[in-house]
Amino acid sequence: MTVPLELYLVLSASVFCAGLFGILVRQSALHFLMAVELMLNAANINLVAFSLEHGNLTGQVFALFGLALAAAEVAIGIGIILVLNRNFDNIDVTDAVTMRW
Amino acid sequence: MVDVFNFVEAIALVPLASFVLVLLLGDRMPKKGAISGIAATGFSLAISLWVVLDLAMGGEVYHEELFTFVAGDDVGVELMFGLLIDPLAALMLTIVSLIAFLVHLFSLGYMNDEGEIGLRRYYASLSLFTFSMLAFVYSNNLLMAFMFFELVGLCSFLLIGFWFRDDGPPSAAKKAFLVTRFGDYFFLVGVVAVLGTFGTAAFAGEHSFIIEATHVLDPSHSGEMNTFFGLGEQAWITVIALLVLGGVVGKSAQFPLHTWLPDAMEGPTPVSALIHAATMVAAGVYLVMRMYGFYALSPTALSIIALIGGFTAFFAATMALVKQELKQVLAYSTVSQYGYMMLALGGGGYVGAVFHLTTHAIFKALLFLGAGAVIIAMHHNENMWDMGGLKSRMPVTYWTFLFGSLALAGIFPFAGFWSKDEVLLETLQHGLSGEPILLVGYGFGAAAVVLTALYTFRMVFLTFHGDPRTETAEDPEPIGWNMKFPLVVLGVLSAVAGVINLGAIKEFIGEDALFLKKWLEGKTLDGELGSLSAKEYHHILESDYAAGYEVTEISPLGPGALALVLALIGLGGAVALYRGSEPTPHMTKLGRVRTLLMNNYYLDEFQVWLATGLTAPLARAANKFDQSGIDGVVNGTGSVSMFTGQRFRKIQTGIVTNYAALLTMGLVLLLLVFALMGGWF
Amino acid sequence: MFIEGILAFTLASALLVFGSPDRYAGKLATGLSLVPLVGSVLMWLDFSSGGNALLADGNVAFQNTVDWFTFTFDSFELTLQWNVGVDGVSLPLLVLTTVLTTLALVSSWTPIDARQSQFYGLMLLMEMALIGVFTTLDFLLWFVFWEAVLIPMYFLIAIWGGPRRKYAAIKFLLYTNLASLIMFIGMFSLIFGLGDAISTLSFTEIAGALRAGELGSFAGMEAETLRLFAFVLLFVGFAVKVPLVPFHTWLPDAHVQAPTPVSVMLAGVLLKMGTYALLRFNFTMLPDVARENAEIIAAIGVLSVIYGALLALAQRDLKRIVAYSSISSMGYVILGLVAFTPHGMGGATFQMVSHGLISGLMFMVVGVIYNATHTRMVGDMSGLADRMPWTVGIFVAGSFGYMGLPLMSGFAAEVLIFIGSFQSTVIGNAPLFTAGAMFGIVIVAGYLLWAMQRTLFGEFSVETDYEVGTAPVHDIAPMFVLLGLIIVLGIQPDIIYEAIQNAVNPLNDPLTLAVDFFTGGELQ
Can you give the pTM of this predicted structure? Predict the structure, then answer.
């Protein structure tokens, strides 16, 4: 039996909304980073789901790219969080409001 | 014999060389450049006399194009420089170089011996002036004439402002240039109009604009010209003539642009003698003479010239009556005398005008140089009421000055009598034949004769007669030979120069003895240059298509006697009022009239008001409009952009969450829009 | 390849000067700038005039055309070219550029005392761009140079300028850049309107196609509307550069804040870009529109003359006076151009050169006075003639040149323009417009004489605490060179006027040319 495409999409949308919710309401940068990861993975689910549906591997390749991108993003994101922590003694994203400090 | 015309160009170019030389090396030259100037003007005088001699012996009139200013590429008007040396120009060249020569000599005493500084500048400007004036005189076209007309204005500016460290001279220089520039504006419009109308500005030759205009009007010829604004041909000619007249009125200090000349007396006195009496001021009148064939075509223009001239002659004479400074009297007298020349030209008296120009140049230069000698003797005090009794202390100056005064007042047999009589006679002759405006001019002129004699001898009595009224006058500074020599030369000429045209007694000596008239009629002026002859001018004047003047033949003796009687009345008045050792200032009895005259009818104030009361506020208003209006719009555009930018900047809070919210809302909005547009609901 | 050589050399010298030490930058830049100067003079000597570069039968000197690349729009192809060459209009302006640059560089030795290598490098960069503007014949290439002029100019004002330099520099940049945008739109609407009719952006080809009436419709506008639309956009774009009233307000600010040598370049050459472009685009490519609206254009010219002169009359700052009189003088150029008569257009082009020299001279002399007194306000000084006789002599000579004293180039230029516009058959009531513009010569005399009397003459006094002495020789020398050129051109305008006439006459009204009446004037 195959899982219908709609279910994947519902899952993807739910994960995406969770991530979006995290971004909109959280102040901690770590939560932020996690929320972004959720949203990225929601996109990945979509890609893979459509790939399966259409029998076309392009989507899966893109999902792989997405994973690599997410990894790189985490690396940079953690770096930024460390710098934030060093400068503000916390990791509240609403404190850093200027481009330069 | 060497043909003199091989080096006529040098008449003007040698003073130009002197200018360059003095400008570059003046400080190291003997007498700071005076010698160079004297040599150059002496040379010009010699060549000019040679030219006169050559023409008198029946030589050909010289007319050559020498230099292409703008070639015009075969489609535009060609602009050339050329020389035209006919009897009129030759006479004028001689006058200019003679006076320039004598003034250079006089300057040795007036400037060098007084230890003035800046002599290099002085002599350089003087040489430049001589060059420009001579070049103006022998210009063969109107554009070239205009160019040198402007250059003499520059020299006048430089020389009036010679003592630039004081406040008066720079201001006077500015005024002189500005007022004449106002006149020259009309002149330049006139020049451009001539070029636009006839395609040429040449004074003489087959295609000169004067001949072309004559042919257009003359029914027996055919010529072509453009007219503008739908005016008739004669009307357009009148417009052009009046435009050019603007420059004449400015330069020759005629009402209402005469105000600069009395102020110009701030310059050194030799300069006043050369520029502001004998030559540059004559340039305007000379220009009318140069293109007299053109003016003769327009009765309206002639009437206006006569009216301006006659009125100025009288008007300026009234102001000369009350002035206390020696040079001021002479300045107003100059304005008045040029009025006579204009009157003559307007009245159809071409020969009379040339005659008066000649004699006036001599006696007015003499009077100014005499005044210069007095000023040196009085240590630069010009007030006549501080003088007196100089007669016995400086006899050479006195006698020459007296000769000049007699000539100016028009007393028989001095030069001024003959020329002024000629002016009045010719105006009267044409006026009596149904030209009431000329009669009005004649009336002004005749009245001015009385005033002229009165102010002239008031001046002579106050300066030289009676007892000395100050200590300087008791013991004046002696003057040297270099000042006496020019005085004596001009003094002799003032007495005898009338001989060239004894018009008043022509019934006794015959037409043939009127040398100037014959000279101007020019026996070699024929063919295409015939248009320059005085005979031709009379022919045009009397043609119906042109001015249409007629001559009422009256014996010249009557008007001559009348002029003499009028002059004697004035002279008598002066004797009666200012004779004796302690003359009283009678003019103060005039009361408010005197105040009016002392203030020159408040014309200067009016012109100053035009500049500072009218133009300056207008300029300030324009500036204000520019700053707040036009630039306001520009800066306003900037401000509006800045303002909007600042407002919109507010949404850039820097808080990441806000951006995320905005992004989300944007996405949702977009989805909604697509949804609505796509009809999903 | 001559033009490319000059361009490349100037660019290379600019880079070299950027890298040189500050102490030697001034002299090095001056020395290097002699090469384009000599080069352009050699071009001038070698030049034999042969018509207008934009017209089919014109003979372009030193032309070099190389195809660059072709790109395709839906329906037609355009080849971009490297296309340079000069004719009788652009060559005098090219020589003017190189002459003024060298002299301006010499005149910078005294006032520029910081970051010299950058200053001189930027000046040379600007010279390169200006040479490009006057020599390129391909629209896109030309536009690159046109815009490239702005960048060095912006920095020159913003770094070395007076107290309000930032404001002036930004105003200059934004104003002229916006104008370029407007002009660009206008030009490209023409190019698209021409469509297949052109295969390159060469001026010659565009002009030929436009004059042949091959303009189609574009963006919903018929050819007739499109012509007018493009003409107006181009005119406005260039009017800012000239500048014509009412687009002039950036000029006084820029001039007052800019250092002396930059003012010299701004007034001397940059303003001529505007009139040059007007002549090349509006009056060569769209002559019909210019003719139909001749009265309006002439009125703008007269307004610029009189209004500019009135504004100059109200100023107290010597530099502002000279700046506003530039507006006045450029108004004459417009009047001359729109006359479509030999002396009108020729005189206008001559006036571009002449005004470049005279205004350059005036800005230099004001700069020298400022170096000595540290003030430019008319009320703050008097009697300078006592202390700086040579400088004052040049000031007087330059002022009279500005007033149009005969035997100086200004008179020749103005009188030619007046003769030309008086005869114009294109402008209705041309004599009235001419007489109106001519009144400018009275006002200009008024304010210059007033300024001279107040600052140069009278008893010596200066409000500031500086020792006023004679200026150094390297300040005086460039002014004498300019004065010499002004007098030489004033006595013999035909040195350049002949070539100018040759280039502009084909543009003129055939009707005027047919009246052989005007040629009958010469004497035999």
Answer: 0.90
* pLDDT of C153: 95
Q: Which of B151, B193, B619 sits opposite C310 (nearest CB)?
A: B619
Q: For residues C425-432, give the mean pLDDT.
A: 87
Query: What's the whole-number mean pLDDT along residues C259-283?
Result: 93
Q: Model confidence over B456-472: pLDDT tens digits?
A: 999 998 888 888 888 88
Distance between CA atoms of B178 and B157, rounded to whole angstroms? 10
Looking up tokens 């992004």, which residue turns up? B663
Q: Which of B326, B316, B321 is nearest to B269 (CA)?
A: B326
C514 vs A30: CA distance, rounded Å: 88
Residue B161 has pLDDT above 60, yes or no: yes
Token match 């436009």: residue? Answer: C210
How many CB pairs below 8 A link A and B? 24
Radius of gyration (Cα) for chain C, nearest Å? 22
Instruction: Map tokens 């570059």 to a residue.
Output: B24
User: How many Å apart are CA C344 and CA B273, to the nearest integer?
Assistant: 42
Cβ atoms of B14 and B40 closer than 8 Å: yes
Model confidence at C513, in pLDDT bands (50, 70, 90)?
A: very low
Report the distance separating Cα B436 and Cα B607, nearest Å. 31
Distance of alpha carbon C252 from alpha carbon C162, whole angstroms: 13
Measured between alpha carbons, how far is C217 from C223 in angstroms, rounded to an integer? 5
Q: What is the pLDDT of residues B363-417, one digit of tens each?
A: 999 999 999 999 888 888 888 888 888 888 888 899 999 999 999 998 888 888 9
Contact C263, C162 (CB under 8 A): no
Quick: pLDDT tens for B281-296.
999 999 999 999 899 9
User: What secondary structure does DSSP assign to C14-62, as a single string?
Assistant: HHHHHHS-HHHHHHHHHHHHHHHHHHHHHHHHH----S-TTSTT---EE
Q: With H, G, I as helix, E, B as strand and everything else as coil, classify residue C188.
A: helix
Domain ranges of chain C: 293-524
3-state secondary structure of C98: helix
With touching defined as 3+ CB pairs under 8 A, do chains C and A touch? no
Spatial contact of C134 and C92, defined as CB atoms under 8 Å apart? no
| B:76-105 residues touching chain C, CB 8 A cutoff | 76-78, 80, 82
The span from the CA of B91 to the CA of B53, in Å, is 10
Helix (H, G, I), strand (E, B) or coil at C477: helix
Q: Is 0.90 exceeded by the ipTM?
A: yes
Helix (H, G, I), strand (E, B) or coil at C282: helix
Please list every residue in chain C whose beta carbon sits closer than 8 Å to the beta carbon of residue B139.
none
Residue B329: closest CA among B438, B462, B208: B462
Contact between B154 and C405 (Cβ < 8 Å): yes
Which secondary structure element, helix H or strand E, spans residue C292, and what is its range?
Answer: helix C287-292
Helix (H, G, I), strand (E, B) or coil at B325: strand
Q: Distances from the Cα of B560 to the Cαs of A5, A17, B313, B564, in angstroms?
A: 131, 122, 18, 6
Choose, out of A94, A95, A98, the residue to mutate when testing the contact with B (most B CBs < 10 Å): A94
**Residues near C430 by Cβ (< 8 Å), separated by ≥ 6?**
C298, C339, C421, C422, C423, C424
φ, ψ of residue B56 in degrees (nearest 5) = -65, -30
